[in-house]
Amino acid sequence: MTASDREPTAPPVGPVDSSRVPRYAGPATFARLPRVDEVGGTADVAVVGVPFDTGVSYRPGARFGGNAIREASRLLRPYNPAQDAAPFALAQVADAGDIAANPFNINEAVETVQAAADDLLDSGSRLMTLGGDHTIALPLLRSVARKHGPVALLHFDAHLDTWDTYFGAEYTHGTPFRRAVEEGILDTAALSHVGTRGPLYGKQDLDDDAKMGFGIVTSADVMRRGVDEITDQLRQRIGDRPLYISIDIDVLDPAHAPGTGTPEAGGLTSRELLEIVRGLAGCHLVSADVVEVAPAYDHAEITAVAASHTAYELTTIMARQVAASRTA
Questions:
Q1: What is the per-residue pLDDT across 12-59, written as a single tens digit (0 to 9) for each?
Q2: Using alpha carbons only, how large is the chain's radius of gyration in Å?
Q3: Nearest to 156 by CA among 305, 288, 321, 308
Q4: From CA 155, how far away is CA 85, in angstroms rounded?
Q5: Distance between CA 250 and CA 219 in Å, rounded?
Q6: Ramachandran region of residue 161, left (φ > 0), alpha (ψ -120 to 50) or beta?
Q7: pTM score of the predicted model
Q8: Rounded-to-integer distance, Cα 184 and Cα 177, Å
Q9: Is 23 helix (H, G, I), strand (E, B) or coil?
Q10: DSSP per-residue letters across 56-123
C-alpha cells in the first residue's frame, strides 16, 4: 500500500497528546508524531533525517542537525493558525527516521540518500528532509525529478551553492545546484535564490550563476522591498510547476541562527523566512528540506527552534495539498 492508496476516511494518526504525556517525555520524533512503522509503513508526508556533513567546507556538526530539530519540535502544536490548518489531521505525517549514509565516502553517501528517497517517494510520500549539510539536496532533487520531471527550485541560503568544485570534489555543500543544472533535473525557467549575501570569490560567481538560470533575491532586497512583494515575485516565477524548496538555515542572520557552519552577517529574520514560506502555500510543493543546523554552535536552541518552525510550515503546505487532492 502506498500513501495515496490509504483509505481517505481513515483519520490520520496524530502527535502524542501533550495533556497526557509531557512534551519533554518520550522519544523525540518530529512534532511528537508517530514513526512511519506505526502508521502502516507509509505516510503522505514523511519527515526524514539525513545525519551527514562530510560535504562541509568550514564548521562541521550538521550531522546532528536532524535530531536537534526533532528535539526543538516538541513544542509544535497540531493547529497552525498562520495557515488556518491542522496539518496532522489533514494528512498522515510521520517520522521516517534517518537515512544512514557513509560518512567517509561522499559519492556513496549521495547514492544512498537518492535510493532511500526513491523508496519513500515511490511509496506515495512527499519528503520533509532534515539535514545534514547541503550536499544532500542533489540526491533529493534527483529523486524528485525522477518522479515529477525537472522541478522549479526555491533555494533559501546565504550562499549560491553553484560553485564547481572544492579541492577537486564535485559533491560538496557548495556545489549541489550546479550539478543539478548540469544533470537537467531543474526547470531553469524557475530557479531562485533567496537571502544571499556576503563576499564571493569574484564577480564570475554571479555571472556563472546567472547563466544557469538563477534569479537572486538578496537579504537586502527582502529588507527594502518587503516580504509581500518578494513573495509575489517568487510565486509568479514558480507558476504551477512542481516545486522543491531547499532551506539552508544560514539564510537567517546569525542572531536568529547561530548554530550553523558558514554564518554570514546581514541575513533574514526568522519572521521574514516564515512569512515568505507561508506566502508560497498556493504553489505545488512536492518536497522540501531544511539543512545545515549545527547544534554545537547553537545556544538556547535558537537555530533548531527556527528550523523546526520552518519545517512545520512546509509540512503544513504539503498536508493541505494532499487533503485538497483527495477532495478535488
A1: 999 999 989 999 999 999 999 999 999 999 999 999 999 999 999 999
A2: 18
A3: 288
A4: 25
A5: 11
A6: left
A7: 0.96
A8: 11
A9: coil
A10: -SS---GGGHHHHHHHHGGG--S-BTTTTB-HHHHS-EEEEEE----TT-HHHHHHHHHHHHHHHHHT
